[in-house]
Each structure stands twice: as C-alpha cells, then as structure tokens.
Amino acid sequence: MSFAATILTLYPDMFPGPLGHSLAGRALGTGVWTLDTLQIRDFAEDRHRSVDDTPAGGGAGMVMKADVLARAVDAALAARPDCPVLAMTPRGAPLTQDRVRTLAAGPGVTLLCGRFEGMDERLFEARPVEPVSIGDYVLSGGEMAALTLLDACIRLLPGVMGAASSGVEESFESGLLEYPQYTRPVTWEGRTIPEVLRSGDHAKIAAWRAQRAADDTRLRRPDLWERYRSARDRPPSGAQ
Ligand code: SAM
C-alpha cells in the first residue's frame, strides 16, 4: 500500500519540488508514496478569500484563521481519516528519527504548512492536529519543513533505499551520531583513511566505529550523549 502524503498549503506548486527527484522522485513515480495538495485558500468563505487576519492583542504580521484551517483539516481528515495531521510550527515538539520511523511505518501523513506569524492557537484545541518543529530556527513558511519531514519518511519506505541496511546504521538510529565515513583515494591532501578501515578485520572495524560514534556524539552533541547514557545505564524495568 502507498504512503499517502497530503499537504495543506497556500503554495501547492512548491510540491513535490525536490521530492520529485532522485530516490523520492522515483518512489513517487512507482507509487511507493502518493502526493495530494489542498489549497488552504479554497476553504476561505468570504468574498476576498481571506486566510489571515491581524493578531489579537496587536503586533506585527498576520495570523492564519482558525476557521479556514479547520475546514482544510476537516477535508483532509474526511479523505484520509487514518493519517495523522501534523502542523509545521517552531512551537511544536522537535521532530526526531524515532517519530519519523513511526510515521513512515503508518499509512501516511497530512501536513499543515503555516505562513505569516503562524496559526490561530484554537485550531490545536479544536482539531486533532499535532504541532511539530524541524528545529530551533524560524523559516518563512511551513512548506520547507513539510518537505523535510516527508523526505525523512520517504527514504525509509520499503524499496526506496538501495541497500536494505542503509537505514539502520545511521545517525540517531542507535541514539548516537553515525561514525565518520571515508572513501578512496586512500590518501588525500596528506590525510590517510584510518588504517583499521583498510585492515579487512570486521570485528576491529566494528569496534572502531562504535568508539568513534560514542566519542563524536559526546563532543558534538552532549544533549544526545546524556540521553543515550542515561538510557544505557538505566536498570531494566522490574530490576531491584
Ligand atoms: N511567529 C512564529 C513563531 O515565532 O513561532 C513563526 C512563524 S514562521 C515565520 C511561518 C511558518 O513557517 C510557521 O507557521 C510554520 O508553518 C513555518 N515554520 C517556521 N519555522 C519552522 C520550524 N522550525 N519548524 C516547522 N515549521 C516552521
């Protein structure tokens, strides 16, 4: 069965964009995933087809209207009641590889793309919409965030990646960053690929990679390292 992506956006032409190329593009062509876009403006009911209004309490910019967004979400849910609805917003929970893997194992996703100053908060109270962020920085619109989330899901769909193993050894899958990678030439600008990787000794290679994954995570991502370490050192549940 195809993974169904539905995008609610003011800019449907931005899709599939980069996801029409390479692995994702091929997978779209062969029906591994499907793409539907809904124009949010089609759910406006006034003469001017307005989708936004000034912020309550004052301030710069415009806010996307709850009633228009809710009608768009309702239409997406009517078409795909089985797919979770995720709203792209810097105020959401940070997207993780765990969440991506769970989403990729499901029937699909409906992604709501914000613009302007964001969405009327009452949408999140009135509809089953999960706020999701792709990182601690602010984009000008949710479309790039939706493309990022979709790309992360699509590459995990069965048959999309060439080697079956290439999804499971990657950064975050074990809770750590991936070990560093090298390829030919053996020496480049006076720098040589670590000898162990050329030794053919698979046990030693695995040990070196595990050590580097741990060292690099500790140095570059102390937040990840702490999480990994406390999960690793936690006694199994039920143990005294
Ligand atoms: N005023 C909002 C704030 O400070 O939280 C930012 C609004 S941003 C200019 C416009 C839209 O871009 C958002 O509604 C959201 O859809 C999208 N966006 C921006 N940064 C994002 C992020 N880090 N993750 C997910 N979506 C983001």
From TrEMBL:
GO BP of this protein: tRNA N1-guanine methylation
The answer to whether the entry has keyword Isomerase is: no
Q: Could you tell me what this protein does? A: Specifically methylates guanosine-37 in various tRNAs.
- Domain of life (superkingdom): Bacteria
**Disordered: region residues:** 225-240
Enzyme class, first EC level, given as a word:
transferase
Q: Where is the tRNA methyltransferase TRMD/TRM10-type domain?
A: 6-226
Which Gene Ontology molecular function entries are recorded, alphabetically?
tRNA (guanine(37)-N1)-methyltransferase activity
Reactions this protein catalyses: guanosine(37) in tRNA + S-adenosyl-L-methionine = N(1)-methylguanosine(37) in tRNA + S-adenosyl-L-homocysteine + H(+)
Q: A cellular component term (GO) from this record?
A: cytosol
Q: Which parts of the chain are coiled coil? A: none
Q: What is this protein called?
A: tRNA (guanine-N(1)-)-methyltransferase
Please state the gene responsible for encoding this protein.
trmD
Q: Record's family?
A: Belongs to the RNA methyltransferase TrmD family.
Q: Which organism is it from?
A: Sphingomonas changnyeongensis
UniProt keywords, alphabetically: Cytoplasm, Methyltransferase, S-adenosyl-L-methionine, Transferase, tRNA processing
Q: Where found in the cell?
A: Cytoplasm
How does this protein assemble? Homodimer.
Query: Which SUPFAM superfamilies does this chain map to?
Result: alpha/beta knot
Q: What is its EC number?
A: 2.1.1.228
Under the heading InterPro entries, the entry gives: Alpha/beta_knot_MTases (IPR029028), tRNA_m1G_MeTrfase_C_sf (IPR023148), tRNA_m1G_MeTrfase_TrmD (IPR002649), tRNA_m1G_MTases_N (IPR029026), tRNA_MeTrfase_TRMD/TRM10 (IPR016009)
For S-adenosyl-L-methionine, which residues are the binding ones?
114, 134-139
